[in-house]
Design a protein that fits this description.
Layout: E1 2-6, H1 10-21, E2 25-29, E3 41-44, H2 46-52, H3 56-64, E4 66-67, E5 70-75, E6 80-85, E7 93-96, H4 97-105, E8 113-114, E9 119-124, E10 129-133, E11 138-141, E12 143-146, H5 153-158, E13 164-176, E14 186-192, E15 195-202, E16 206-214, H6 227-233, H7 239-247, E17 254-261, E18 268-269, E19 272-274, H8 277-280, H9 289-306, H10 309-338, H11 343-355, H12 358-363
Parallel strand pairs: 1-2, 1-12, 2-8, 5-14, 12-19
Antiparallel strand pairs: 3-7, 4-7, 5-6, 9-10, 10-11, 13-16, 13-17, 14-15, 15-16, 18-19
Helix pairs in contact: 1-4, 1-9, 2-9, 3-4, 9-10
Bound molecules: flavin-adenine dinucleotide.
Residues 6-12, 29-32, 42-43, 118-119, 147-149, 153, 171, 173, 210, 256, 276-277, 284, 287-291, 293 line the site of flavin-adenine dinucleotide.
């Protein structure tokens, strides 16, 4: 089959790698001049690695990943509120984003990736999909996979009613080197009235951090929030937070407002299907956006190898729509509680969190392992 993939991010490239291996004629269109990831680090859950199985890509990711065994939630004074322990027998990893995309891209032949090529239009009928590039070229395909991210222009064409929702907080991120953390297998989040600070270990004495702070969409208050401002804002947070911010270079800090999509009813529109953030962008609170994009790619490839074309697309829809909708909702709800800034609500939340058995928190991620891959 001749397949177009719009977007060479984590989702699009995973799909390209797996579909190419199944002898489909794959073409990836990426608007950027090169394959690169914006962002610091990323967590890849055991649910994704389980679905990748014995594929070499899983081995590559495991080799480059820092194993994370638990997620600790603390208050802004450094007192532990609770801990989520990763599911027994699973491997949960963190990597630098650029490392992850390079590993995935290494399974896609260069000749298949058309960088510097933005898709601006899609037309489809019962027998083909036609994509037009910004340069005015038209290309015909049997199937179009829209992996063009949160603000997908393909989604806007096939489902203009899909709703992108600002979640009320903005996120700063950075990556630091030469830092030794006391617990190399623990990701930590400090929850306080001024926001949530996450510190996540990476291999080789590196780590990434993020700060989620309540803000208006595009809030000018945080526009020039450079390193000294961030340090001053969080100088009452525990030593570990101050230490990692101190280690951060002046220039490497990025900021993104946080959005998700209202869960959709379908990801399949004729000969076009949505994958990754284009289909189900979620808040980062469960660390599952990229993981679910990779799972989409795995499931789609399995379905196309097992069923005929139409059945494969229906099966993809059946396996992915409901599941990713649940991820969006759960992640959004975690974010709401984590971002409380009212003292009373924080006190109540922390009181409850300290008393909930850790097992209950850990179990929140159990459903991620229950989906089928075909
Ligand atoms: C702060 C933060 C932290 C996160 N942490 C995690 C985490 O720990 N774990 C996790 O699993 N997920 C995490 N995520 C989510 C994760 O980053 C995304 O879910 C994931 O990157 C989505 O991949 P994608 O390939 O679907 O889309 P994208 O990464 O957005 O890729 C889309 C690609 O399409 C290209 N493109 C767009 N439009 C066009 C066009 N018209 N023509 C051609 N190319 C186009 C873009 O240039 C881009 O390269 C986080 C997100 C944020 C914001």
């Amino acid at each position: 089959m001749k397949i177009a993939i719009v977007g060479g991010g984590i989702g699009g490239l995973t799909a390209a790698a797996l579909l190419h291996e199944q002898d489909h004629e794959v073409h990836v269109f990426e608007q950027q001049e090169e394959i690169k990831e914006v962002g610091a680090g990323i967590g890849i859950g055991g649910n994704v690695l389980e679905k990748l199985g014995n594929h070499d890509m899983a081995k590559g990711i495991k080799n480059a990943g820092q194993v994370i065994k638990e997620m600790e939630i603390l208050d802004d004074k450094g007192h532990t509120l609770n801990k989520a322990v990763m599911k027994k027998g699973t491997v949960n990893l963190t990597l630098a984003r650029q490392t992850l995309i390079e590993i995935i891209a290494s399974y896609v032949p260069d000749s298949v990736i058309h960088t510097g090529t933005k898709i601006i239009n899609l037309v489809q009928n019962s027998s083909k999909v036609t994509l037009t590039t910004e340069q005015g070229e038209a290309h015909h395909f049997d199937l179009c996979i829209a992996a063009d991210g949160l603000h997908s222009i393909i989604r806007q064409q096939v489902n203009p009613k899909a709703k992108v929702n600002y979640q009320g907080y903005t996120c700063f991120r950075g990556l630091v080197e030469d830092i030794s953390l006391t617990q190399q297998h623990t990701a930590k989040e400090y929850w306080g009235a001024k926001g949530r600070v996450g510190i996540v270990p990476l291999l080789n004495n590196k780590a990434y951090w993020f700060i989620a702070v309540n803000a208006k969409q595009g809030d000018p208050k945080f526009k020039d929030f450079t390193k000294p401002y961030i340090q001053a804002y969080y100088n009452h947070y525990p030593n570990e937070v101050r230490r990692i911010l101190d280690q951060q270079s002046e220039t490497g800090i990025i900021r993104h407002d946080i959005y998700d999509l209202t869960p959709m009813q379908s990801f399949v529109y004729g000969r076009t299907l949505l994958l990754g953030d284009a289909a189900h962008a979620t808040t980062p609170n469960m660390g599952q956006g990229a993981g679910q994009a990779m799972e989409d790619a795995i499931v789609l490839t399995n379905c196309l190898s097992k069923y005929d074309f139409r059945e494969a697309l229906s099966r993809y829809d059946a396996l992915r729509v409901k599941h990713t909708g649940k991820v969006i909702k759960r992640s959004r709800s975690i974010g709401k509680k984590a971002q409380y800034q009212n003292g009373l609500m924080i006190g109540l939340r922390n009181f409850v969190l300290k008393r909930i058995p850790s097992k209950l928190i850990s179990n929140q991620a159990k459903f991620l392992y229950k989906t089928k891959a075909e």
